[in-house]
Amino acid sequence: MNRWVLLEHKVTGSKLIDIHYDFLVEDQLDCFTWKFYEIPLLNKGFVEIRKQPKHRLVWLSRVEYQLSNNRGFVKRIDHGTFSYISHNKDSQDLQIILNGQLLDGLLVIDGNLCQLTKKN
Known about the structure:
The chain starts with a strand and ends with a strand. It has one domain. It has an 8-stranded antiparallel beta barrel. By secondary structure, the chain is mainly beta. It has strands at residues 3-12, 17-27, 30-36, 47-55, 64-66, 73-87, 93-99, 105-110, 113-117. The chain is built from no helices and 9 strands. It is globular and about 45 Å long.
C-alpha cells in the first residue's frame, strides 16, 4: 500500500518553540522522510525542505505522540495514499500524486525544495 503522512513536530525548549513538519512516504519496510519548514500550498511556489533518515512504518498510523528525551510532540496534520510519477531512490528527486485533505495534488521534490501543484 502506498501511504504517506504529514506530522506537525513541535519541540519546546526553555525559551523557544521549534515547529516544523515531517513528511513520510511509505517504502516497503520503512518511510522516506523529509523535514518541511512550512506546508506546501497548492500552486504557491517552492518551499524549503531537508531529507531526513528513514523512519519506521509505525509513524504512518500515529495520530499524536509524545517523543522521548525531550524531542517534542507530533500530531498528524494530513495523510492519504500516493502514486509514483517518478522516483530515483539514489537521489533526492521525487514526483508523486498525493491524495489527501490538505495535500492533494502533484508533489515535486527537487533536492531541498518541494512544490505542490494541481493534478493533471
